[in-house]
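Supplementary Methods. Inverse-folding protocol.

Structures were first reduced to a discrete structure-token string of length 75. This string, shown here, constituted the complete conditioning input.
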């Protein structure tokens, strides 16, 4: 009787351990997914910043060129 009870406890222990391992794996996967999402967001933000900076630079250059041309033409 005691022996069978012991086997039952061992099985329950195994299931508990397996459940814990599954939980750990799930948590690790969730963390990895979150990290990937954060990296993607950072990359998107960087691209947006680069595009905005490039646009600003282009606009400034165009404005300067136009002003210079106008000044040269007027004088």
């Amino acid at each position: 009787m005691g022996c069978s009870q012991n086997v039952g406890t061992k099985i329950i222990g195994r299931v508990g351990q397996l459940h814990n391992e599954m939980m750990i794996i799930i948590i690790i996967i969730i963390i990895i997914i979150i990290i990937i999402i954060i990296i993607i967001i950072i990359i998107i933000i960087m691209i947006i910043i680069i595009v905005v900076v490039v646009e600003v630079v282009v606009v400034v250059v165009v404005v300067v060129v136009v002003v210079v041309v106008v000044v040269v033409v007027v004088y």
